[in-house]
Backbone:
C-alpha cells in the first residue's frame, strides 16, 4: 500500500482519482479546502488553500511520508481581450502556478527516493498547441506551471523523485460546465496509469492522460 496525497480531492477529477486509488487499496489522504459528503470514509485534511502558506503547512503537518503526490487544484475563468481583468489573471497565476509549487515545496521533507509527483496542468498551457488564442489567465498560469514542473523534475532527480505534468483530457466537470469528451472517472483512471508508469527516466514529461506526449 502506498500513500497518495491528492490536493483538490473534494470534487471533479480529484475526487474520482482519490476514489480509484482508495479502491485499489492505496492509503489516500484527501486534501481540500472544504470536504464534501463524497469524502465520507476518506482521511481528509481540510483548509488546504493552495494560495496560502498556512493552508499548505496544515497539509504538510498531517502527513508523514508521501509516495504519490497529485496536485489537482485549479481554476479556470475565461479572460480575453474583451474582459482583460488583471486581478483575475493574478488569481489564476496564484492558484494554478504558484499553488502547486507551494504544495510541492511544503511537502519536500515528506518525499523520498521513489516518490512521484503529478502536477495536473492543461494542454491550454502549451505554447506550441495554442491555435485559438485568448484565455490569458488560464493559459499563462498553466504555462507557468509547466515550467515549474520541468524545473522540479530536474531539481528533484538527485533525490530520486520523479515529476510529470499531466493533461487530463477534456473532462465533464464543473470547470467545463459539464462539457467534454470523457467523464471524470475515466480521466482519473488514465491519470493513475500515467502515474504508475512514471519513472526517473520519464521524469519531466508533459503528457496527455491517454499517454501521448504533448508539445511544450
Ligand atoms: N475538466 C477539464 O476538461 C480539464 C482540462 C484540462 C485541465 N484540467 C485541470 O484538471 C484539474 C481538475 O479540474 P476539474 O475539471 O476537476 O475542476 P473542478 O471540478 O472545478 O475542481 C477543481 C478543484 O480544484 C480545487 N481548488 C480550486 N481552487 C483552489 C484553491 N485555491 N485551493 C485549493 N483547492 C482549490 C477545487 O476545490 P473547491 O471545491 O474548494 O473549489 C476543486 O477540488 C484542474 O487543475 C484543471 O485545470 C481540467
Residues:
Amino acid at each position: 500500500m502506498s500513500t497518495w496525497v491528492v490536493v483538490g480531492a473534494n470534487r471533479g477529477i480529484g475526487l474520482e482519482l482519490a476514489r480509484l486509488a482508495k479502491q485499489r487499496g492505496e492509503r489516500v489522504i484527501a486534501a481540500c479546502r472544504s470536504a464534501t459528503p463524497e469524502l465520507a470514509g476518506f482521511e481528509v485534511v481540510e483548509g488546504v488553500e493552495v494560495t496560502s502558506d498556512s493552508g499548505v503547512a496544515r497539509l504538510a503537518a498531517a502527513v508523514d511520508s508521501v509516495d504519490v503526490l497529485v496536485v489537482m487544484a485549479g481554476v479556470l475563468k475565461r479572460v480575453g481581450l474583451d474582459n482583460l481583468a488583471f486581478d483575475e489573471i493574478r488569481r489564476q497565476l496564484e492558484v494554478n502556478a504558484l499553488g502547486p509549487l507551494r504544495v510541492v515545496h511544503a511537502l519536500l521533507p515528506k518525499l523520498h527516493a521513489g516518490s512521484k509527483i503529478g502536477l495536473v496542468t492543461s494542454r491550454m498551457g502549451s505554447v506550441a498547441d495554442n491555435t485559438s488564442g485568448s484565455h490569458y489567465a488560464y493559459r499563462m498560469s498553466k504555462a507557468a506551471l509547466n515550467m515549474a514542473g520541468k524545473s522540479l523534475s530536474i531539481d528533484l532527480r538527485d533525490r530520486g523523485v520523479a515529476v510529470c505534468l499531466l493533461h487530463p483530457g477534456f473532462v465533464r466537470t464543473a470547470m467545463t460546465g459539464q462539457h467534454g469528451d470523457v467523464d471524470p472517472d475515466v480521466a482519473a483512471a488514465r491519470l493513475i496509469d500515467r502515474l504508475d508508469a512514471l519513472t526517473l527516466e520519464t521524469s519531466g514529461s508533459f503528457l496527455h492522460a491517454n499517454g501521448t506526449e504533448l508539445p511544450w
Notes: The chain has a mean pLDDT of 98. The radius of gyration is 16 Å.
